[in-house]
Amino acid sequence: MASRRDFLTAFRKPLKNISEESALVVRPPYCYSESLFQSECPACESKACVASCDEKIILIRADGTPMLNFTKSGCTFCEECAKACQMNEMDVLSLDYEHTKEKVNAIFRISTEACVAHHGVVCFSCKEPCIDNAILFNGMFNPVIDMDKCTGCGFCLGRCPTKAINYFATQIVRNPKDEE
Asked: Which of 6, 139, 151, 153 has most Cβ atoms within 10 angstroms of its Cβ?
């Protein structure tokens, strides 16, 4: 039988981050499918997408594929990574892929427990960098993310003083029009 100390210690363990549990990865915009990242990117020697990113948010994972890191900045959808990507006959990133042209495969959430605005403090840190006006406030408090407007650019993440915004990767959905 477990001791009382063991029982209570179980509640002190940190919660796992949603993004760490997920096998999915947040990829640069202008992508076609996850399978292309896995098959083409490890063979790319230039990693031109990384060098082309002015915001410096594209990193190369251990498996040789690119991912986005929003801790310091966000994606401006400048198209430079797609222009730089030139792998074989089918580009991994391309401006022709309409379904991911202005959207990153991530969903952002605001934690009501950690957000100071949800506790009566006037704070617009997340709203200020949001060029899509996807962060709405109910009065002066209680920010929420409008998922219809949110492009997943990630600028809000690094600006939050309490780290109340988190995200998780979603599946990259292929658009049949891009296959024509």
From this structure: 153
